[in-house]
Amino acid sequence: MASLSTLGARIYRGETAYDFVGRRKFWYAVSILLVIVSLTGLGVRGLFLGVEFQGGAVFTVPASAELSTDDGRRIAEDASGNDARVQELGSGALRIQVTGLDTDESDVVRAVIADEVGLEPTQIDAELVGPSWGQQMTTKAFQGMIVFLVLVTIYLAFAFEWRMSLAALAAMTFDLLVTVGVYALVGFEVTPGSVVGLLTILGYSLYDTVVVFDKVQEKTRVVHKQSRYTYGELANQGINSVVVRSINTSVTALLPVAGLLFIGTGLLAGGMLKDIALPLFVGLAAGTFSSIFIATPLVVDFRLRDPEIAAHNRRILDKRAERGTGTPSPAAHGRIEDEGNGDAGETGGPEDTDAPRTGEGAATVPGPGNGGDGDGDSEYVTVQRRQPVSRSRGRGRPSGKRR
């Protein structure tokens, strides 16, 4: 099996192809497992909404107080009777957040904290956020997300087709559930910065999905003009054509976000950095996964319900059964050159001429039995490519005849 260092280059050059569509049931199972874990974390631990959403008070204790995070949490919870979150800032000061406090209660908690650390109450900054403002923030955030999803659905329905629109919505729903589930599992505070991060990763996930859909639509446009590949195989060609680009783009985007999350949060103790970086990091990874392993396979499942597509696939599979082969010859990803030994009626469409014209060797393609639409015994199979005879061979050379 090829090493990971060379697999991406081979996929990009068309020398090998992974059967994303044929293995879609496995990836559906992985996706459902991730959603179950996320919903379990959300149900068991729940989300800790910040004061911007619940209302409450934020106290900033200066570094001169030399108060530890555990002691600060204990003092705030004992004085208020509510849960408290404590964060150490880069300057050494502590940010103590207590939800559900009004003005009078905030003054009492502030006085207790000051007495415990030996400071005057005026030396501790207190910021009070009313619950009505938090409810308004929550409502506006949900309204913005719903409007975004509706506009995306309409755009994809016109730009591509309604099946791709539904598949993109399913992929974005997966991204949201996984990101929210991670928030619940790690116990991070949900702030307006978190909402900004969520909306950002929805846009990125949509971008990645549209790139894949564009190539899939280009490949499947000729499905009825050829009799070599099923719809699922053509869609699989589209995914393989852009998978390397998608992964490279995602890794490039994840590196600076990882710097914000781990360096900015761990070393610099940046609260806003953490609020934005966590949903970006999780959402970018989930968006790349969903655009490749969820969106296009769902489109294929939707299209297989079309009687014309189903009949087209049956004709192709019947022909292969007559020939005694489970895969199109010579390659399922449409990049290997036709050697001229197939049926004449099977060479229609642009996919037959999209082959490299130089070099000899072996290429790896989805293995027999999967047909691009089901499960097989092998993910890859190797076929031989033959160098065509150059038509310009011998041109410009002396013929050897005497004049």
UniProtKB/TrEMBL annotation:
Key words of the record: Cell membrane, Membrane, Protein transport, Translocation, Transmembrane, Transmembrane helix, Transport
TM stretches of this protein: 26-48, 141-160, 167-188, 194-213, 251-270, 276-300
Major place of residence: membrane
Subcellular locations according to the entry: Cell membrane
Region annotation (Disordered) ranges: 319-403
PANTHER family in UniProt: PROTEIN TRANSLOCASE SUBUNIT SECF, PROTEIN-EXPORT MEMBRANE PROTEIN SEC
Protein name, entry field: Protein-export membrane protein SecF
Organism: Streptomyces alkaliphilus
Organism taxonomic ancestry: Bacteria, Bacillati, Actinomycetota, Actinomycetes, Kitasatosporales
